[in-house]
Amino acid sequence: MQNNMITLTLLGWLLLGLPGVPAAAAARLRTLSVATATNLPIREICTNTCSKAKNGVCEEGRPGKVMTNSPFLMAYCDLGTDCDDCGPWKTTSTNISWIDGKKAGPIRLLQSRDVQVRVKGAAVPQEIGFSFAYTDPKQDFDVSYHMENAGMVEAGITAIAHKLLSGRCVKQGGNRELFVDVGANFGWFAILAAKLGCKVIAYEPVPLFRAFFEFSVHVNDMAFLIDIRDTVVSHERDTLMKMVVPARGIWGTAGIDGLNIDRAIQSDQETIEVRSVRLEDEIKDNVLLLKIDVEGWEWSVVKGAEKFLKKYHVENVIMEYSPGVPERHFKWDHMAATPEMLVNLITKFEYRIGHIGDAGKHQSSGWDSKLVPLKEITMKNLKYDVEDIKLWQAGTLACPVPDELKGFEMWALCGGVPEGLNPRSLRSEIGHNTNIWASKGDGLKHLILNGVVGILSPSDPTEKYFQDNEMNFGMGSRPCHFLDPRVLVKHRCKCTQPEVCGKEEEAVRKASAERRIPQNYVLS
């Protein structure tokens, strides 16, 4: 009876998905469901091997004998090691590496590195409620910041994943669809997919992130569905690859050679070597959703998945698309491979691709709402992305500058990104990175496409210079309204202060009408 009362009391909180759900109460509701979640036998783990055991406070990141209204719980002990204060830990997992004390569990590992662990109920529908581990948002400005303040990670992409997986993970007969997560980070999407009933293969090579992920898997009793692999996914196999992990800032920018780490944020870094695998060697099944978030290494993941994509039906691919990462280091081969990856998804593997955007990954209308329409990424756009990289490498991007424009500050030199890119390209809409959704088959029922990407339309003539898109975005999707008048015209925004940029606009209009703006080129 007491358990039923707790359940009824909390359903309203969880249904609303409020970040302020009392952490201990939310976790207790999830704990009650362990026995009914599967037909697997339940074990009770009860030791007092944690250094903080028997102090009257449950330190395992799960509810103890005393309820608390804190918005999150702190974890200082591995599950099952603070038994007197927390009660026995109930689990269906048969592989618990830390119980004999010979191997450090995820919390002990994080404690040894002085990394704080917070545990909070996710702001998701109550029927898939779960607890999620993260760290001090002052140290991690990305996943932990959003979990702390919103109770979820990347709300826009979460809404898409929920729509694609909900009601489809468990097939008739009981077999499960597969979700593959490359670059799982703290495991948000992997746990979401498992709670929806999918089996999950997740790749996370960074031990720090994997520790958070492993804890969340066990505290939600999801080990029977989630296979965590500690390798790097690449186009090469059995190669030792160097990864660099920041200790502060956006932890998720950890990646190959540290190419996407923000050098403006002062932070210690950890360098690790990890063995690589290819998806085409690893995955031997159809996939309902493949998620890729690997900080500019997406092209390599897809290149190593070509045989897999040909042989098996991969209905949806959601990925971070990061042209700014190789550009930052002038890695020309990686730069060329990045749009070529999208070309291959369209031409070789018959996907249609929608542009989620960077801001769009955090925007959602709600669990039951229709997904927002996305602009389509087409071959009419990507041919300009491919051509711009060739021009950039040759040193002829946006060259030559018309003579009458050379006297204006923003036109003194050729090139410049994003201003010097062709406005019909996908890259013209992107600051540094963005997010895309590729789909085919039944996935297209949910992918609503409306218009095409580009600051200008691929059908616009050579003579057109100034943007007239509905968002009033200039190059790089920089809002014209907020730009300094001195840079408005170069960003294809109309001049708003004639005394500052009026003459520049007049000169640009004349050169455009005469087809002398080099980045205005049109391909057949």
CATH topology type of the domain at 2-321: Rossmann fold
Low-confidence residue ranges: 1-21, 27-36
Main sheet summary: 9 strands, mixed
Strand proportion: 15-25%
Rg from Cα: 25 Å
Helix content: 25-40%
Give the spatial strand order of the biggest sheet. 8-7-6-13-14-17-15-16-18
Structural class designation: alpha/beta
Roughly how many Å apart are the termini? Answer: 72 Å
- Average predicted local confidence, pLDDT: 90
Number of helices: 17
Number of strands: 18
CATH homolog superfamily of the domain at 2-321: Vaccinia Virus protein VP39
Q: What's the CATH architecture of the domain at 2-321?
A: 3-Layer(aba) Sandwich
Shape: elongated
The top-level CATH class of the domain at 2-321 is Alpha Beta
Keywords: Signal
Organism: Volvox africanus
InterPro entries: FkbM_mtfrase, SAM-dependent_MTase, SAM-dependent_MTases_sf
Signal peptide: 1-26
Describe the structure.
The chain has 524 residues and is an alpha/beta fold. The protein has a domain at 2-321: Vaccinia Virus protein VP39 (Rossmann fold), CATH 3.40.50. 29% of the residues lie in helices and 16% in strands. The chain contains 17 helices and 18 strands. It has a 9-stranded mixed sheet with strand order 8-7-6-13-14-17-15-16-18, sandwiched between helices. The chain has a 4-stranded mixed sheet with strand order 9-12-10-11. Helix 1 (2-16) crosses helix 2 (23-32), helix 5 runs antiparallel to helix 9 and helix 14 (332-347) packs antiparallel against helix 15 (379-394). Keywords: Signal. This is Methyltransferase FkbM domain-containing protein. It holds the Pfam family Methyltransf_21. Residues 181-332 form the Methyltransferase FkbM domain.
